[in-house]
Amino acid sequence: MTPSITINEFKKSLRKNACLLDVRRKTDVQTSGVKIPGAVWQDPETIDTWITQLSADQPILVYCVRGGSVSQSVTDRLCQKGLNASFLEGGINGWMDSNQDIVKLHIPNKAYEISREDMDLLHKAKLSDEDMAHSLTVARKALEIAGRTTQKLDMELVGRGALFHDLGKAQTHEIHHGELGAQMGKSLGLPKKITDVMEKHIRGGMTPKEAIELGLPVKDYTLGTLEERIIIYADRLVDIITEKIVPIKTEKEAEDRFEEILKTIPKYGKNDITLERYLGYHREIRNLPGV
User: Fold this and answer.
1) CATH number for the domain running over 4-104
2) What single string gives the DSSP state of each residue in 227-250?
3) So what's the pLDDT on residue 109?
4) Higher pLDDT, 219 or 106
């Protein structure tokens, strides 16, 4: 029998820092315009891509619209993976019917969805399953961050730039994978704004001097658009969240502790120049309206 939880039990678990997942179908989320405070939306149709990000050390609470088949099937899948999961009886509708707190969704930038055609391009390029999962997670994280702010953004650039940023890893994981990825992207007919992200994401956007030191073509790799900086910020956040070098209970904690983590874990900060660059992106993005 699928583990369930009542509203009162649900509220107690939330106070104990449980992980709260909104697994309503995307159309239901957009139609309602609200969520339970603290919930992170995950697409129930793509559970295979995000289930590995969840911690077995933290209770997981799941809700859908009415506590029906969607949340129950997700909960069953999580339990099969050894996770401590349960679904909210009555779903968000039952939650609202009992006059519990809700918050409005802030999704002013919601005009882009990752396409099956782009995923097929990555498969045809023979990107590994691990790199594919990383790229998809970065794209979702970048779109989620971009979707919080009221600042007008090119969401296609955010989503596709993030999805294709590591395309070059289909050939090599060495530092010139960005350059190779851009070449591959051009051969696939991807727009320049997308191939630029692929080429420029190494070390978060280098100066010509840094390029010389790394043996890369001498040019300015600076990230000139906010969309590019959101992608690179999301890339580093996903590394922190998924690699488990630092114990992180929630994705929000990764953002809250970003500066501390980069300053103390050399793998993420790289060197003084790269560190300051990433910290600058973090501060800029955290100060955007809505973020």
Assistant:
1) 3.40.250.10
2) HHHHHHHHHHHHHHHHH-SS--SS
3) 53
4) 219
* DSSP H helical ranges for 36-115: 47-50, 69-80, 91-97
Residues 46, 103: Cα–Cα separation, whole Å: 25
Among the residue ranges 26-30, 161-165, 170-174, 247-251, the one predicted with the least confidence is 26-30
Distance CA 154, CA 195 (A): 15
> How far, CA to CA in Å, does 2 sit from each of 41, 51, 60, 79, 86?
21, 17, 13, 9, 7
CATH topology of domain 116-286: Hypothetical protein af1432 (1.10.3210)
Whether the Cβ atoms of residue 210 and residue 197 lie closer than 8 Å to each other: no
State the span(s) of the chain assigned CATH 3.40.250.10.
4-104
pLDDT digits (tens, 9 = 90+) for 239-252: 999 998 998 888 88
Both tokens of 143, joined, read 């779109």
CA gap 226, 66 in Å, rounded:
38
Residues of the chain with CATH 1.10.3210: 116-286
**What is the residue-averaged pLDDT of the chain?**
91
Partnered with residue 4 across adjacent β-strands are: 87
Helix axes 226-243, 129-148, angle to 10 degrees: 120
Hey, what's the torsion of the CAs at 168, 171, 176, 178, to 10 degrees?
0
